[in-house]
Amino acid sequence: MLTAIVHIDCDAARIPEVAAQIAEIEGVSEVYSVTGEVDLVALVRVREHDRLADVIADQVSKVEGVLRTQTYIAFRAYSRLDLESAFALGIED
Question: Which residues are listed as membrane-spanning (predicted)?
Fold first, then answer.
């Protein structure tokens, strides 16, 4: 499972609508409205590297109201939760 953390700048008047639309995109697991330098943070989880471009460049960045995205690819997760098994859903690689 590949994870990307996407920082999203958007039209401030449309934050709730933009967040809701992004949350509906397949591959986006969570969207948070946050304080700080960006308006939204989305977690994208996909099985194949090529899907990152499909989700982020071809869908998230084209949502009306999105002004800019900045993507961080996660190398390794450090957590007490076993996220890999939580997202496996019984599907074999």
Answer: none
> Three-state DSSP class for 91?
coil
Place of tokens 């599907």: 91
pLDDT of residue 49: 92
* CB contact set of 80 (below 8 Å; sequence gap of 6+): none
What's 53's DSSP letter? Answer: I
Q: Tell me the C-alpha distance between 31 and 52, whole Å.
A: 16
31-42 pLDDT, tens digit per residue, is 999 999 999 999
61 pLDDT tier (thresholds 50, 70, 90): very high
Who's near 14: CB < 8 A, 6+ residues apart?
Answer: 64, 65
Residue ranges per structural domain of the chain: 2-77
